[in-house]
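Proteins fold reproducibly. Take a sample protein:
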Amino acid sequence: MKQFIKNFNNLIKKTIFKVQNKTNNKLLLFKAQNKTNNKLLISKFNKYLITLISLLFFYLFYLSIPVLYNKNWVQKNIEHQLLKDFKIYFSLSSDISYRILPSPHYLIKDSKIIKKDDKTIALAKIKSLKVFVSQKNFFLHKKKLTIKHIKIKNADFIFLENDLRLLKKNANNKFSNKKIEINKSNVFFKNNLDEIISIIKIPHAFLLYDKENLLNLFDLEGKIFDIPFNLNYNKKFNSKDSEKININAQTLRLNIFNMYASEKNNAGSGKNIISFLNSKIDTNYKIENNTIVFKSNDSKINNSKVSYNGDLSINPFDLNLNINIDNYKISRFFDPNSILNSLIKTNLLFNKNISMSSLITTNQKSKNKFFQNAEIQFNIIDGKLNLNKTRLINEKIGLLELKNSNLSFENNKLILNTDILVDIKNSDKLFSLLQTNKKVRKPIKDILINLDYDFSSDEIQFNNIQIDNKKISNELLRIIEEFNDNKLNNWNRSKRLLNVFFTAYEG
């Protein structure tokens, strides 16, 4: 029994040792194989790394090839390609350097864009011009140098009146499908006397032709008179060419949108929408034979509905305009800061080549207003402005009509000289409204007043007054002169002065 137990123990030990030896042998074999594999992996990694570095070095060497190009050749070739690709004459300086990053390009300092007519004129002076080139053919540079896009920075563009016509003409042609980007630049608009009219600062702009959508695209972020604005323009080339332009100035709450579609024989139709504060001017128009016929569509001014229609001949400039505004405050037409007054002060309307006939009608629904209806006539004839046949109407009492009027702007003063006919249909209603003492009431049919009104100072100068074709006395004229400072006039003061006047009037 002891021998049996001893033999059994020996068998167990042999079996355990045999398993351990096999396990140890496998571990040693695995470690050896793993070590070999690691060496193989490290070897392969080194090969890949060396290959990658070599390729990178070769690529950088390839990108650096243009450094070896002759600068005169580069200058002439780039000028040629710019003209070919963009239809723009560039005059490049010899200050040209080649850069790899962010992508291969030539940096050219102090360049110009020129216009070639009878004489060469600089349209732009560019401090920094980057010409990005294709990487495909650096070894064959003498056959072709391909431009991808260009960037203009710190440029001053100078445009005269005739240059704007050139820009409009070019906008009707397809842009290049290679992008032009403009940054930190200025546009100077000058008159024919070389005087600066306005300056537009351009933080960023770009233009190109979108081949996929058949569109000319022009986007601009600008600033004029320290007012930032965005301008987006696109022109679609298809069976019926159309163009859209949108100008947005958020600080002014101003948005201008225009859409136009061309038709045959220089005809076309479009839509224009001007939104400003609580106002919206929505216009449909047609162009034919240099004449624009237009009509309003759901427009409003300061929440008052407005409708209008008219026609405009472009050459020569001749405008016929009819406007109707519901419930619009009549006094706003004579506000010194009104749009019309601001336009007159520019002197643009005092031009013999401009003629205009416009009628603005309005009615005030409030019964508390002295004048319920108005017919404002604004006319331009041979460079002279007038408000003849303008009428302010009180439905119960009568009307006030302007005759022989003249608007002039001299020494920064906008002056209206006019005869004013006060046609009184019912003097009893007038005296009742003024609460005039019945004892001093005398029948009056008409009053003729000649005066000068200064829009800037809001002052009135009475020159002559007649009642029923009779000139008034100096005493009555002195009473009327109390109205000279129009800023002081209000309804209660006016009633008091008119009652003093009618009391002194002997009839």
